[in-house]
């Protein structure tokens, strides 16, 4: 029973304002609140197409926006290069002319109640970093003296990484004597003769903008001394005896001491009056002291000592830890208040040095008696005091800004939740009922509820109810919670109310009163029932289940589904079974419990109602046919003595059916002809009679391998690597199975370059389906082949055709594996190369092109060609070249079919003064270059022999096509094929290289490739000094030559 009356449970809700600010509905007039804006600074990267500066606010009336740039009014809508957002203050800058938009911006959002503002948003447009073009004199020092090579890296987008390397991209080795400082300079505590070299290069990498620039190479000459004198240590970095260092709390600390002296001094560190253990890390050969995240306890005086056998030097660092402004607890909150009250806005911040606090009202600076340092006091406020107050705290390290909305309003309660709100909850789950209210002053909220169960204790009732702000939560809802709830909001001015209906949902109750009635046949019955309660969720369907005692007693199975508005079901039953039935209902919550079972209902035997399905005919052996099918389910037997009649006959040949009775669900027909079509049908029968007339299916008896070979094999060689083969198809009767297609086999017997060597390289491809021609790729030029064709089916391959012998014509040679330039003079250069690994024909000679290059524009100024006769030639002396000039060489090997791809190299002739290579070393360099070339050629010959020895099997078609592109072969692509092989052949790939060039008077250089592979792999420079290889990790063309003096070096 339910208690009808006015029993009320009053739940007082204290309406509190969150730290995130007032939750004032937009229906109420209020000052603007900025909800989304860009946080600066914005760095415009070179690959950014646009820059979006966001500013979005809410308020009532809707706010209007204005911007300032560097303190001056800025109007985005007045510029054709800016796309403003019509809905808010956001605007978009386009990539072009970004430099003119550098500056510090502020956004202001205003309506009649106040103005909210953002912190400064700085836009930075960095220029492409570059080193200045300069000519540097060599650094000449005596052995034992210190050296400082200054990098002076350009500014750019952080992070910036500094590297010291030679022009051939070898890192300058660093140790206790030679080390790089955090300023990027390279410091030598004392010079040794091995430090003499002409190519000390400083590189600055900027990963964010994917750029690396190179400083002009610097030369160091160390003059030898008969006796190196001891030198007392002093510090190259820092200068003086004491340094003041100021760090922000949480920053990484770096203190550095780089000494000079002979012998090389050792560096030690200590903290005066403190312990460094566990807080510091020493690196760069003890020269660098680091603290990952500095704290106040790290303040103090640190001392570094540089000491050797001649004496010592010390330096002191005064470390001071400061911090930018931060909120002590949280930013000041916005406040809602009524007329006549007092308002205090406190801006509690900390920082070192102590922040200066500036107060603004609607963006304008406040002065006067209302401002008391970190607090603004508003006495006896009135509606006109409603504004946005800004607290800005700043010191030398940064600033904080908080917008504080003060809304002075007297407003009766306004319930924002829709009246007559309906809530539906499943029995046993939890529900949250909302009652959102706005008023000033805040309302007290009560919840009125009727229909409480008599036996329900008040304590338990309260324990299941929780109030959170304007939300009522009921745990573990039961049926007694269903009813009408009223939310009442009261203030001293007025009150408002809203109602809500709570409906409890559950699964349907079980149907009752199940009745069975026969429809003139015991196997066709009607089942009826009375539905149970749907528990506030309509029944979508009823499910009828059955259980039978003959085959699976005790197991309930689904028999039929009925729509939810129907309470009867017409059931068709199987024969020779003893049934009982039950029903359950389903609604949106889920399925309900089943009803009680009906009485037993027995059906009499009857003939089968269907025949087997999914009849399959297979021929696993040539002279038999395997027939199988899916048997009837036990309940489908409809009576005792179930068996199957298998009937079959040859399609279109026999009129009479051959019949067999079986109890299993498979049958094997033996002594059949090979691959002959048959008609088959399967019929069910039990003790009460036959099933319906069966359907006829068609299948084939077993396959055997084909007996005939294709005839009239014809081969048309299209080019050096591709041919077209055709044949006459075998008669269909000889296939003796389902046609799979044709196999083409070819054997490379010998190369016409070496006809006495037997190769015996086997290859094959399959071409599916009925066809009489195919395109065969992947042949080797200048070779003799034999080719055969055979047909295949599912059982196997037929006999091969008579072999056809053919030869492929000569092709162009592969690329020359190596080309080097050596022994440069004013007007001549010697070229040395190795022969191609695969000549693909009779090598007739080489074709050489050489071009005079403009080193500034990289354009070709003049070109010449030379045809070098004689296949055994591996070097050539070029005369008549221009003094002190850059040349590019292209060398190709040739046969009668033409010349192959060219290998490239670059080199420079020397000047009259002997630049690029000194006269002392020219003979040595030529000798070294020649010896290196001989060694490399020997290695290539050994690799070629190894590849030849292991060659065979499948031809790697894709790789060959990539190495020898052929328009004809691309046009022959329309034939699909598969391939198989008993071994693999992969062509030897020569690694391509890139020429490098540098100039000791070159200016800055810029590369815009990825830095991902910078630390790995080989690298090089192009003509203007740009760093490419080690920076991008990509393969380039190139050459190898000996470094010589201060001139350009290639690697």
From TrEMBL:
PROSITE patterns assigned: FN3, IG_LIKE
Q: Which first-to-last residue range defines the signal peptide?
A: 1-21
Q: Name one GO molecular function term.
A: cell-cell adhesion mediator activity
Question: Out of the domains of life, which is the source?
Answer: Eukaryota
Q: Which residues form a coiled coil?
A: none
Q: Reply yes or no: does the keyword Membrane apply.
A: yes
**Chain spans, region Disordered:** 590-612, 964-1051
Its subcellular locations are:
Cell membrane
- Positions of the Ig-like domain: 32-122, 126-213, 233-315, 325-407, 413-503
List the biased-composition ranges (Acidic residues): 968-977
Question: Where do transmembrane segments lie in this chain?
Answer: 926-947
Please give the Pfam families that the UniProt record associates with this protein.
Answer: Bravo_FIGEY, fn3, I-set, Ig_3
Q: What InterPro entries is this protein classified in?
A: FN3_dom, FN3_sf, Ig-like_dom, Ig-like_dom_sf, Ig-like_fold, Ig_I-set, Ig_sub, Ig_sub2
Topology relative to the lipid bilayer, per the entry, is:
Single-pass type I membrane protein
Write the record's keywords in alphabetical order, separated by commas: Cell adhesion, Cell membrane, Disulfide bond, Glycoprotein, Immunoglobulin domain, Membrane, Repeat, Signal, Transmembrane, Transmembrane helix
Q: Where is the Fibronectin type-III domain?
A: 510-606, 611-704, 709-811, 812-914
Family the UniProt entry places it in: Belongs to the immunoglobulin superfamily. L1/neurofascin/NgCAM family.
Q: What is this protein called?
A: Neural cell adhesion molecule L1-like protein
Give the originating organism. Salarias fasciatus (Jewelled blenny)
- Name the encoding gene, please: LOC115407759
